[in-house]
Every structure is written in C-alpha cells, then in structure tokens.
C-alpha cells in the first residue's frame, strides 16, 4: 500500500509540473492592478536611442505584439521598436502567441527636432494574469532626457561573484539588430545572468579548455616552452611548473582586466594593440630571445648588478617570475585568440549589466582553462631536456626556430603579404641547412642522422617552393605554388560569391533597404586569425559557397577600429570580429542565427539553410 501511495503522489507531482503556466487552477490570490503588475520605465541610452524597461510581476505575462509607443510632443517620433525574442506559448484567448515574463527591454530609435532634448514617452502594454484574467491595454508614462547619462544596473562585488545579482540585465536590442538574441553568445550571456556563481565559473573554465585547442592559442606553446628551455637543464620539474603557472596567471589576470574594461567601455582593445609598432616591438623581443637560444649571446644582467642581487635572488633560480608574468600579460593581449562566443557572451553580459565582478571572474576562469594545457606543456618541456651535451643545444635551437616563427606570425597581418612569404621561405631554408640538408652523410651514418637530414631536405624544398611562389606573385603561404595554375584558379574564383563592403551604418541601412534577398553581414579585420580561417576553410567550401551565392553578401572591415567601425560593432552588440549577422528580405535581423567566432563549413551550411528559409 505504501508503494501505491508513493506512486500516486509521484504521478500527481508530474501532472502538476506539466500543467500549463497560465492555468487558473495553479494560481491563487487576487489579481493586481495592471500598473502594479506591469511597471514601465524608460531612459535615453544616447540622443538617438531610448530604452524601455517593463518589469513583470510573477504569474503575469505580456503579449509581444501589443506594445505601442508615442511621444508628447508629437514632433518626436520613434522608429521600429527593437525587442528580444519572446517565448511562444499557447494562450487560452489568442492561441499561439509570443509572450514575455519577469522583464523585457525594448530599444526605440528616436528622431527629435533640433533643440528638443526632453519629452514624455507614453507606452501601452497588454498582458494577462495566470489566474485567468486578461487586462485591456494599459498606458504608462516616463519623462525622457536625451542628454542624461544612462544608469547601469549591477550588484556589488560579492553578489556578482556568487551570482546573486537581483537587478535585471539590459536586453540591449540595438537599432537594426536583436538584443540578447538566441545565438550562442546571447545564450552564454544568459548563463551568466541566470546560473549560480560556481556553475558559471566551471562552465567558463570548460569554454577555456575548448579555446585552448584553437589555432589562435598555438603561438603561446613555443613562447612558454622557450622560457622553460631557455633556462637550461638545471631547472627542476617543480620550477618548470611554477614558471608555467606564473605565465598562465599573468595571462588570466590580463584577460579578466582587459575583458572587464572592454565590456564596460564597449571598445575593442585588441584593435589598439594590433598595429605595426606594437606587434613589431613584440616580434623583436621574440627574435632577440631566439638569437640567444642560437648562442649568439647570453641574456643576463650586468655583472655588477648580478653581484648585488646574488644574495637575494636564490629563490628565483631558473628564471625571473616577474619577467615570466610580463610575458604572460603580453601574450594574452597580443597573441591571444580573437573574439569567440564565450568571450563575446561574457563581454555582452558585462556591457548589459555593469556587473564587472561576475563577468571578470568568468573571464579569469576561462583564461585558466585556456592555460591549463600550457601547464602540461611547460612541465613536458622540462622532461625532454637532456642532462648535458649536444642534445641540449639542439633542443634550444629548435625552440629558437619556433620563436622566430611566432615573430613572423605576429607581423603577418600588419606588413605587406610579400614580406611574410619571404620570411617563411628564409626560415624554412635556413632550418633545413642547419639540419645538414646539403651536407653529405658519413658512410656509416646512424638512423637518427639520416632522419634529421631527411627533415632538413623537406624543409629546404618547402622553403624553396615558398620563395619561388613569392617571387612569382603568390601570397598564400599554405599554397605557395598556386600561382602556377592561375588560369584554373581564376576561373574557379569567378564562381565564388563576392562581398560588398559597407563602411558605416548609413551604408548598411541603404543596402538593407534595397535588398531583394536574404542578407549576410560578415565582420572582418586583417589582424583577426579566426576571420581568415572563416575565409579560407568555411566560405570557400563548395556547399557553403553555393548557399552564399543566393544571398546578398556584405562585409564590414573593422581593421582600423575608427568611429564608423565602432558604431557598426555597437549596433549589433559585438566587441570584435569575427561575427556574422543574417537579415531577411525586409532587412530585419534573423533572431538566433548569429555566428560569433570560427565555425566549420558543415555547421555553417546548416545556419545558411535556416537563413535562406
């Protein structure tokens, strides 16, 4: 009998959970007045945009298509309201409807006569109580000052870190775009807002582990390995781990601080660092480090200074912790990955709520996840060091070559394409020569001698092919001899879809207004590695190219990060490239279809199929 009663209780619980949210039987109490159930407020985000916030009481909901807005005086007009996607439910009165609960934020483009900075907004909303009552349209007012500074909401440090922020996030549906849409970065921003603190930190640590295996992170491997190897075989395994940990912590703190600054300011910090002077200086550091590993000189303090510090520097044997931390900071800022969905989601959350504590903690956890494999690399670099002899010199020279490769990789986005091609050719050819590619082997050469000579020959041939291709006009290091089949390449390229560049919001609006087919807008920058990956591996896929050929393709090149570039990024709540936005034939953004970061061709083709419907 006890088991039967338990089963009945379980079934009753399941039926209660599966009951519709608006069923009257599940709601008790008396209904509230509409102005208490739906509280409207508004503020100006800038002179052209007003944000309307409606707080919705528990057990109440609003209809998405019932919002109406007007201004007093009527010389102030509003554009098309931009609102986030609601939840589609079955309503007892209107059937399938889109509704909002808890809170909704809507952006209104404003057009006011010159000299008019203050007006009264009159907003009408309509919704229902789950207890079975639906209200008529209810109009509320808010006084707007277009010149007033917008007020951001956010909790204190402890509340933010523990995920206890009671203040709602801003659903900033920018003019012409969606707000917190159902794309990946929007869902990640929602995770920050809705989940508990420990779950958020664990999730972002996992995101970091995934990002650790992206091409943007690969240059950090030779940097850290070079630091470990450069200190020689006397470094212990524990010291190698400490140096690696300091490097990773420097990277993580930088990500958190730079991410919070970017989220609060809305600026693209990476763009400020991606210029020839900054990258050239950093590349020079790597060249100097590599030359030291080749034995051209020893990097050390002056003798007099060494003598003065010898008594206090014993705890820093095997390398300066401060120098390693600085290298981690620089690596995070300059060598780190381009904007990806987890990073974009965290920045979006920070920008919307001003909650820098939770957003910064999430970015710190993400950077730790990105650096976790580097800890293994640092310790592994120690284990491969021989005790003494020629092997030690060979290992150091190998990492010297890797550091030179990082220097070339850093300069590639900001110098003419011919120079990186020539640099790669020289690096490969000289590496092959150092591996005795052109030296005769002794008659009784051992297996390893023959193996490394073979590697040297391959590198020498690859470098020669790179040099020939560069001189013949090729600028693609991965296909240096493609210029030899120029006619076939040209014929195939003519069939690929072409992008039209848009340099400002005005140009974008004009192209969207004239569009007669679905539109794809791609955000790109010369220094963005993931952008180049999208072009090389995704956009050129035949299935992807065929689908893109049925769309109007627009490209926003934000390399310069000027005011127009910043305005375009801000319009779509993006903090940097790559980002792909889709619009329907009427020029309205398709909710939930954004692609932030690199996406493989097969998955991107599925997104295009949805965008073409």
What does this structure look like?
By secondary structure, the chain is of the alpha+beta class. 49% of the residues lie in helices and 15% in strands. It has helices spanning 2-18, 34-37, 157-161, 184-194, 197-211, 220-229, 237-265, 269-273, 276-293, 303-309, 321-335, 341-353, 356-383, 390-411, 418-434, 447-472, 486-495, 505-514, 529-538, 542-548, 563-571, 601-612, and strands spanning 38-46, 49-56, 60-63, 68-72, 77-78, 87-91, 95-100, 103-111, 118-125, 127-129, 133-134, 138-145, 500-501, 519-524, 552-557, 579-583, 595-596. Mean pLDDT is 74; it is low at 1-26, 153-181, 308-319 and 487-495. It comes from Aromatoleum evansii.
């Amino acid at each position: 009998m006890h088991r039967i009663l338990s089963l009945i209780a379980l079934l009753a619980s399941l039926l209660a959970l599966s009951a519709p949210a608006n069923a009257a039987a599940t709601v008790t109490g008396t209904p509230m007045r509409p102005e208490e159930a739906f509280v409207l407020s508004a503020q100006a985000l800038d002179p052209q945009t007003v944000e309307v916030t409606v707080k919705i009481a528990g057990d109440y909901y609003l209809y998405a298509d019932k919002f109406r807005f007007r201004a007093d005086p009527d010389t102030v007009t509003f554009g098309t309201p931009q609102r986030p996607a609601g939840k589609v439910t079955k309503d007892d009165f209107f059937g399938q409807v889109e509704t909002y609960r808890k809170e909704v934020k809507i952006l209104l483009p404003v057009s006011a006569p010159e000299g008019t900075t203050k007006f009264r907004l009159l907003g009408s909303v309509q919704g229902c109580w789950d207890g079975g009552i639906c209200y008529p349209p209810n109009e509320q007012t808010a006084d707007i000052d277009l010149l007033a500074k917008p007020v951001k909401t956010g909790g204190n440090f402890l509340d933010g870190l523990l995920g206890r922020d009671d203040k709602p996030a801003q659903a900033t549906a920018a003019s012409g775009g969606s707000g917190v849409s159902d794309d990946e970065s929007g869902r990640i921003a929602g995770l920050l807002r809705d989940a508990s603190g420990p779950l958020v930190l664990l999730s972002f640590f996992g995101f970091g582990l995934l990002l650790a295996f992206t091409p943007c992170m690969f240059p950090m491997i030779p940097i850290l390995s070079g630091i470990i190897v450069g200190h020689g075989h006397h470094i212990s395994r524990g010291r190698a781990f400490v140096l690696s940990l300091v490097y990773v912590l420097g990277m993580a703190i930088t990500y958190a601080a730079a991410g919070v600054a970017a989220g609060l300011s809305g600026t693209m910090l990476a763009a400020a660092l991606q210029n020839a002077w900054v990258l050239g200086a950093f590349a020079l550091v790597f060249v100097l480090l590599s030359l030291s590993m080749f034995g051209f000189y020893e990097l050390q303090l002056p003798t007099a200074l060494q003598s003065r510090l010898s008594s206090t520097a014993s705890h820093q044997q095997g390398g300066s912790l401060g120098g390693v931390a600085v290298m981690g900071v620089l690596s995070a800022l300059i060598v780190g990955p381009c904007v990806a969905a987890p990073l974009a989601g965290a920045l979006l959350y920070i920008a919307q709520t001003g909650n820098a504590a939770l957003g910064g903690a999430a970015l710190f956890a993400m950077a730790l996840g990105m650096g976790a494999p580097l800890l293994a690399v640092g310790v592994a670099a120690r284990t491969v060091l021989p005790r003494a002899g020629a092997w030690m010199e060979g290992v150091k020279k190998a990492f010297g070559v890797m550091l030179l490769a990082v220097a070339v990789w850093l300069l590639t986005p900001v110098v003419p394409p011919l120079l990186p091609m020539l640099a790669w050719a020289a690096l490969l050819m000289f590496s092959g020569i150092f591996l005795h590619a052109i030296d005769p082997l002794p008659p009784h050469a051992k297996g390893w001698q023959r193996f490394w000579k073979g590697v040297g020959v391959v590198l020498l041939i690859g470098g020669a092919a790179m040099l020939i291709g560069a001189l013949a006009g090729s600028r693609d290091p991965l296909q240096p001899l493609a210029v030899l089949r120029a006619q076939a390449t040209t014929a195939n390229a003519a069939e690929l879809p072409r992008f039209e560049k848009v340099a400002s919001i005005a140009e974008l609006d004009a192209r969207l207004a004239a569009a007669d087919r679905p539109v794809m807008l791609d955000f790109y920058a010369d220094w963005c590695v993931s952008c180049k990956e999208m072009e090389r591996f995704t956009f050129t896929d035949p299935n992807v190219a065929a689908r893109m050929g049925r769309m109007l393709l627009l490209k926003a090149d934000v390399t310069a990060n000027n005011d127009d570039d910043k305005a375009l990024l801000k319009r779509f709540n993006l903090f940097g490239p790559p980002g792909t936005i889709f619009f329907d034939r009427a020029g309205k953004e398709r909710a939930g279809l954004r692609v932030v970061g690199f996406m493989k061709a097969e998955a991107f083709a599925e997104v295009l199929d949805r965008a073409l419907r």
